[in-house]
Amino acid sequence: MTIRSRLFLVTESPAPSGVGAHMLTLAEGLRGDHDIVIAATPASGLLPRARARGLTVKAIDPGDVADLSRWFARTRPDIVHVHAGIGWEGHASAQAAHDAGARVVRTEHLPYLLTDADQRAAHRAGLSHVDRLIAVSGAVADSHARAEFGNRLVTILNGVVPPTAPTKPRATLRRYGALDDGPVLLMAARFAEQKDHRLILDAMPAIRAVHPRVTLLLAGEGPLHWTIARQIAARGLAGSVRMLGQRDDLPDLMGAADLLVLPSRFEGLSLVALEAMAAGLPVVASDAPGNAGMLDHGRSGWLAPAGDAAAFAATVIDALSDRDRLRTVAATASDDQRTHYDADRMIRDTAAIYAQETSGAPRPDGTRMTRIGFIGAGGIAHRHFGVLEQFEDVAIVAIADVDGARADEAAARFGAQAFTDIDAMLDTVEVDALYICVPPFAHGAPERAAIARGLPFFVEKPVALDIATADAIAAEVAAADLVTAVGYHWRYLDTVDEVRGLLAHNPARLMSGYWLDSTPPPQWWWHEDQSGGQMVEQTTHLIDLARYLAGDVTRVFGLAGHTDRADFHGLDVPTASTASLQFASGAIANFASTCLLGWNHRVGLHLFGDRLAVEITDRELMVDVGHGRPVRGTQGDPVWHEDRDFIDAVQGKENRIRCPYADAVETHRVALAIGESARTGAAIMLEELI
């Protein structure tokens, strides 16, 4: 069986337009042999483009080196390919990847332009974490070679997939765009100093003198967008220059144009120029490094001195002067693109570098990672995300949520795959265990999907809306002998451990629980047929804690009241509830709940024994034995402990899980009995719901 390597394509660039397109081309060409993650900053715009192609993504913050280091250490990639738009980018990612044992490849997409001594020193130091340096053109390679970066440097020319054919005939495109019948120039580039939009504006008057009906189309966005817009108006060019914004119909624009113009001050190897060559659109470019090696002047395109508007205008006029020559040059450029700048060749050459770097290199291993999938990516899932990402032996690899955008956002945090369908996730991604973090009404299908695949699962409370579903799943779990845990995290409070010690020889005889709070914002919570109400969805924590401390419940009596609330349209759950419980131990308890408040007033459990009074909240413990009311705070994070116990059990270590699924079902049985008693007005013996 061939082992698929883990390949991460990473850029720290804030606006990776061409860099991002290059990375996506590599990813799509290599995904058959590698498990690929695209990593970039959220603001870059690259992550949605990658997700749209079915690629796994990870949102990174280059300024948070500690987080980068944790991510690489946890995911242990085989190869990290860093793509740098300019010399000061990519060093944090390279160092974190190197420290995690990955082979690090770095592609320089632009010539060596650093002049600041500190930046040059940082670049040189950063390369100490790089195993192989790639340049996208001969010009880029030459500039970096002159900086004496050693023999790790190799040139792999940029390559492109030819753009799709225009969807409309040329004449239709021109009519649709309301273009004059004169020549059409297209410049598709980010509005930045590098691209030198000002030069083409300076050249336009001379071009218009020869071709009065010429139109210049400017496609793209960038920091100089409004500066260029003002200059167009100030120069009286509004009738001849059109700003199109960011476009996704570049093939159609190329089909409507006569020339692509590229007046850049510098380039690595322009992808849009290569796409124009492939599409049969002739190119006029500055002779800046990167362009000069791409075009053979007069044969496959035209070159003009960089920074010289008059020369650029003259070159454009010359190119437009002979239509037959335009067609010949376009055909030659297309041949050159297929021969030298083909995407398949670029992909093969890059894959060869990966193979060279990993041949004989030990595969990063160490402690085996436990691969976790999440079903549900709401608030409680994020509580577990924050814990699990601290564990060096855990990787969150897949997230499913009916809200695709929410799944995408959560998956980008970890470099996981996002899904909207549970079965699709489990059929696609190998996981060792599942976290099920869905609203009460959504339970059942996720648990059965886990059981069908023999997967341990952690499920958030309550475990279902009805007892029949919970009992059926409990029976299936027992038959499959699965490791399970339920999120009754109050059992993991260190203060609860202390109370259990106190009660061991002086058991509680009376308990009072309070959940006096506001109404949660999710609208599903407002409806009893979706949440079960406050006793089932919130106060269940205290009911479970009482069971944990005092044993089984034998008899339940409940009362409930409802107040209509204008601010919560459609809310039909009880807004005030009380319950009385009797325990097999002889203890009795009462619980009071309300969601009428606009704040958290009191949430906790009070216990009373022989000359003993105890008050527990999730933050404090008070023990009164007649010598005052000393209070101490809780220590540690109970969710951390419950997650750690679940992961350890999944890994085959000692099973210290405090609330497996079957035990949680008994708590759920009590909570449902309270609601049933409130509806019928009769006390309920627990056997009646079995």
Short account of what is shown:
The protein is of the alpha/beta class. 38% of the residues lie in helices and 21% in strands. The strands form 4 sheets. The protein has a 9-stranded mixed beta sheet. A 7-stranded parallel beta sheet has the order 3-2-1-4-5-6-7. A 6-stranded parallel beta sheet has the order 10-9-8-11-12-13, sandwiched between helices.
Description:
Helix content is 38%, strand content 21%. By secondary structure, it is α/β, with parallel strands linked by helices. It folds into 4 domains: 5-159 and 344-358, Rossmann fold (3-Layer(aba) Sandwich), CATH 3.40.50.2000; 170-340, 3-Layer(aba) Sandwich (Rossmann fold), CATH 3.40.50; 370-488, Rossmann fold, CATH 3.40.50; 490-637 and 659-689, Dihydrodipicolinate Reductase, domain 2 (2-Layer Sandwich), CATH 3.30.360.10. Helix 2 (46-52) links the parallel strand 2 (34-40) and strand 3 (56-59). Helix 15 crosses helix 24 and helix 19 (467-480) packs antiparallel against helix 25 (661-680). It is elongated. The model is unreliable at 362-366 (pLDDT under 50). Residues 371-488 form the Gfo/Idh/MocA-like oxidoreductase N-terminal domain. This is Glycosyltransferase.
